[in-house]
Amino acid sequence: MTVQLPLSESALAPDTQSKAEAREIAPDLAYRRLKIVNVVFLGQPGANNDWLLIDTGLPGSKSDIVSVAEERFGKGARPRAILLTHGHFDHIGTVEDLAAEWDVDVYAHPLEHPYLDGTLSYPPADTEAGGGLMTLLAPLFPRSPINLGKRLKLLPDDGSVPFTEGWRWIATPGHTPGHVSLWRESDRTLIAGDAFVTTGQESIYEAATQKPEMHGPPRYFTPDWNAAEVSVKTLAGLEPELAVSGHGRAVKGPVMREALHRLASAFRTIAVPEHLR
């Protein structure tokens, strides 16, 4: 039986929602939900070309991303670079088109490069992961690599995030080998990717309604649960004040931290599919 970690309304990060439906959760941080996945915009409003795009959503999301970018940063705005938390289809759906149109590089962890340079496909989906129809449909989701060619760059070895101040990347493998999260110590802000998510991603209903709950990474596409557990414990140990993940609403405060610590301490019961326990 799955243990639920519901999040109350008090754990939801307050936001202002623009006409293009970007949710601003900090002066220099906003996200836009595109169907089932979040895309993150990192930079001050009006910065024009001095910002980062974190992940690029599903195929077909390009016009939405460009609309948010131009509303938030100015007409004709383009980022300094695109950064990928990982290379799953719902996070890289428009990266090739956007990188070409904006003429920018794409940064990712070296262990994620084989899935972004045409070398490797991701492992097959786990159809026994449970949770709902998304899991049953997961074998239909794309797993093949894309090839970003010369635009693909390595994240710096020193943990810094290119073109930012105060941010660093943290290796959070498990969901994929080269998955990363982004962390800013000064205000304890976390961009978690899919290291943990704040809605049930295995269920079409929960993915659509965004019911706020604390979950481990999406089960059907997580091959290394030992590494995923370590990653969640690492992020919980940071004691974040504000967190936005790849799926679900941004969350904040002590209620969020309590749920994240409960997830970390009971990870095997809460996050891992029963057939693997």
Automatic annotation (TrEMBL):
Under the heading SUPFAM superfamilies, the entry gives:
Metallo-hydrolase/oxidoreductase
Q: What is this protein called?
A: MBL fold metallo-hydrolase
Organism superkingdom: Bacteria
Query: Known Pfam families for this protein?
Result: Lactamase_B (PF00753)
Q: Where is the Metallo-beta-lactamase domain?
A: 36-247
Species in which this protein is naturally found: Mesorhizobium liriopis
Q: Which residues form a coiled coil?
A: none
Signal peptide residues are: none
Mind telling me which InterPro entries this protein's record contains?
Metallo-B-lactamas, NDM-1-like, RibonucZ/Hydroxyglut_hydro
Taxonomic lineage of the native organism: Bacteria, Pseudomonadati, Pseudomonadota, Alphaproteobacteria, Hyphomicrobiales
